Amino acid sequence: MKILATLAVFLLSVAFTLRPNEMYVFASGQAVPENLSEWGFFAGKLADQKPIDGVLPYRLNTPLFSDYAEKLRFVKLPAGQAVQYNPDDVLAFPVGTVLIKTFYFPTDFRDATKGRRLVETRLLVHETNGWKALEYVWNTDQTDAVLEVAGEQTEVAYLDGEGNAHRQTYVMPNLNQCKGCHNRSEKLMPIGPSARQLNGELAYASGPENQLTHWQKHGLLTNLPALTDRPKTPVWNDATTGTLDTRARAWLDINCAHCHRPDGPASTSGLNLRYNETNPTAWGILKTPVAAGRGSGGRQYDITPGKPDESILVYRLESTDPGIMMPEVARKVTHREGVTLVREWIRGLKAE
Amino acid sequence: MKTLFALLFSCCLLSLTAQAQSGVQKAIQKQLILTEDGETIQLDAGTFTFTGSLSLEDKKNIVIRGQGMDKTVLSFKGQTDGAEGLRVSNGQNIIIENLTIQDTKGDCIKTMNVNGITFRNVKVEWTGTPGPDNGSYGLYPVQCQNVLIEDCVAIGASDAGIYVGQSKNIIVRRCEAYHNVAGIEIENSLMADVYENNAHENTGGILVFDLPDLVQKRGGNVRVYKNQIRNNNFDNFAPKGNIVAGVMAGTGVLILATNEVEIFENQIINNKSIGTGIISYYFTERPIADTAYYPYPTKINIHDNTYQRERGYPSRKGRMGLIFRFKLKFGKDVPDILWDGITDEKYARPATMDICLRNNAGATFANMDAANNFKKISRNVTAQDCTLQPLTDTKLTLK
């Protein structure tokens, strides 16, 4: 008994000064829902992720790699409002928009009927004072997901496309980490849904259709040019959609350029991996590292043309050491196929 | 029986501690997220182990306070998530004080886009033998304004113990840095006062660098004064590829391509290779593609310092070791102040590049004539005997 009391005191003294269960609130002062179900985005069983009318699924041509998690994406625009087309950047969604992204692992990547495990649903909510990120972690019963401000981690297991078994730690971000990537000049911003990323087909209930065309038809998108005039991000692993160069640059853009851009948090490095950067030094060719530390791996340049094994970029993409790897958060395993693409691309680059 | 009981107790205590501490990590991170502007986050005394980075974002007027430098210890040994120990972004008037951060995978404390950042009585260290697996920077404010670093200690960084990069209005004072590759480094930064620090047993004591391809292009108005810069003879352990990997063991002060630097009233003692070096970026033989970058050091005013050096050979290691042995051939009689002598013909006074050396007790000098393959090495300091207007002191705007 005495021991228990001692332990209790010990634990209390270990705990930092904490305030009681604080509510997380919107700009309006309204409390953020504790459970994903309270948002009412989905009909029927929540885990089936069947969106109600007004919540539209979408996909990106080349998505961010997230430790092999699969993603379901949805957008909900405020009733009666549309977003204006622009060719280059993330669409300027109006206040009231919610972007919804559910991460899951299929039990077996070769056979969807074997089921899946939903791990987290991330929301980006456009409030009057800017975007807010929210993180909901799915419960083990898969009945609902619960708001988690400080992040979480879990073990996931699956069979990959070749039938190999994998077991890995899966980390869900705390809300500060959201801004680690979703950061444009220190403002929280969406990353994925630009017109060029959305310019591809999706299988709707009504049949397959170009997403931008579909959005326009349903009054969600204005000023859309003809199909042939819309820029298109290639699909990184589909050689019919682009050259090695454009596919590698597309992969680097979505995986790196949220930070490595002039208005992103990795601007300090001088490395800009946006698809449209034209200065070869800025995207790493013969560029010496600035604050890479042991991330340099003893290599001289970010990219040594023709030599992936002498390129810091490859070293950091392949590593899973948190002091070396890139991206530096939200990754526990190496994107093997992505690295292969970047290696091929660097091998094909010619020294001037 | 008693022994068994004690054993059981200690095992349970340990497991509970581990659990409690992972709870602590989550609890403190939650508090860093939910804390409101103007609040103080108090950390208890004790050693706490973290497996992931902590971060503070978008906050104003926050104090993160431990119970004392060696009393509140945040250890990141075995870190699995995130590179830094603590990261602060987009803040105003943030104070971090009275604590220690140890053994992070990457940098110990990185702050970015913070206007008003104070580190006071903070120790950042990598325990054990210094090596290339240590993180890069101990204290690492970058793209910040009004940076105050005082009474801090930095040990074991594989790049710089205290590093201020691409920042404006900086004071680094009364700090101690040792067993780092670079003790204290000011890089691409404007208006910095570095004084009364003790940089010893690093590879290089205090570095003032301007590098190409960065967002904040040009540093300057950097004053380094009244520092103790001794015995910085530690073998370089920086991972290759990094600019500091080229710093020669035995370097006291090194100025690379920076303009307007004043070095005065320092004790620069027993740094066996380069008491003070003044070099252009060309000297590094790295390519320059940045057209807005000015690779020469100019307006360097080095005066009223005390130099001492025991007669003996400089470091034999690395590219600089080779240059000393086969080009400079100073033997045991190594000059205290070295200039690469690479000049810009377009500069107003190309012969001197406004590099002024005066009244440095015990100092000897050499112009290495590096641009001409070290052909006319000159030990004559007469051309450099000039003085410049003192630089203005740095004033911080802190709440």
- How many strand segments of chain B? 28
Oligomer: heterodimer
Distance between the termini of chain B: 60 Å
The total of beta strands of chain A comes to 16
Q: What are the defining features of this structure?
A:
heterodimer; A: 352 residues; alpha+beta; 6-stranded antiparallel beta sheet; 7 helices; 16 strands; globular; disordered N terminus; B: 399 residues; mainly beta; 28-stranded parallel beta sheet; 28 strands
Can you offer a commentary on this structure?
The complex is a heterodimer of chains A (352) and B (399). Chain A is α+β, with helices and mostly antiparallel strands and 352 residues long. Chain A is built from seven helices and 16 strands. Chain A is globular, with a radius of gyration of 22 Å. Chain B has a domain at 126-384. Helix content of chain B is 11%, strand content 41%. Chain B has two helices and 28 strands. Chain B has helices spanning 2-34, 318-328; strands at residues 40-42, 46-49, 52-57, 60-65, 72-75, 81-102, 109-125, 137-142, 145-150, 153-155, 160-165, 168-173, 176-178, 182-187, 190-195, 198-200, 204-209, 220-225, 228-230, 251-256, 259-264, 267-269, 274-279, 298-303, 306-308, 337-339, 355-358, 365-367. Chain B has a 28-stranded parallel beta sheet that branches. Chain B is globular, with a radius of gyration of 22 Å. Chain B starts with a helix and ends in a 32-residue tail after the last strand. Classes of the chains: A alpha+beta (352), B mainly beta (399). Chains A and B meet through helix 1 and helix 2 of A and helix 1, strand 3, strand 6 and strand 8 of B.
